Known about the structure:
With 244 residues, the chain is an alpha/beta fold. 30% of the residues lie in helices and 28% in strands. It is built from eight helices and 13 strands. It has a seven-stranded mixed β-sheet. The longest helix has 22 residues, at 222-243. The model has no long low-confidence stretch (mean pLDDT 94).
Amino acid sequence: MKGIILAGGNGTRLSPLTKVTNKHLLPIYDKPMIYYPIEVLKRAGITNVLIVSGKGHSGHFLNLLGSGKDFGMRFAYEVQEEAGGIAQALGLAEDFADNENVAVILGDNVFQDDLSQSVKSFDKTKGAKVFLKEVHDPHRFGVAEMKDGKIVGIEEKPKQPRSNMAVTGIYMYDGRVFDAIKTLKPSGRGELEITDVNNFYVKENTMTYETLKGWWTDAGTFDSLLRANQLVAEEAAKKAEKKS
Length: 244
């Protein structure tokens, strides 16, 4: 399975921090934000990875990450010319994916879980998989509507969420995801939404899910960026305590 990290967008919610750099290059504790999704994929056994970034800072990613050799991985790069949504950014990965199953992770998401078994079980299968986490502020995310243990719909940033189960920023798809993206129309925000991609699989009854056991957060707002720093720092302290 190949990996795709989506690190585009303008990061306007983190302005003025993002006036001089891409938000995915901001620090979380002791590493740049982009390192965390890279580490999630590597732990899961995925070493062939495409990084999609915006054109304004694409050179910064290349300077920081290079070929991937330092990570024991192989990186390719693609540029999203404009902020057209997560699904549009994913669509740029069609040639890279080359009909293989893909694990897609948002560059501003930080996960505690080891997803290696999830990757192994999904590889070579058909359909899609999302990872859910119970949250106190579901209106900020895509929210899964559940019925009889299955996802029957996903709503993007609902004012009145039908559950508190957020769809986190890691997804697994078969090769048909790119055909699904080509059928999408821009949302009211003028973007191609990843929620619409996920609902494509929901409607054909090929969407599966897992619920994360460990902590998870995005880092796209000042509050969530602070939370990401705190969670990572606490985990680092626990590991250091165990070693001592």
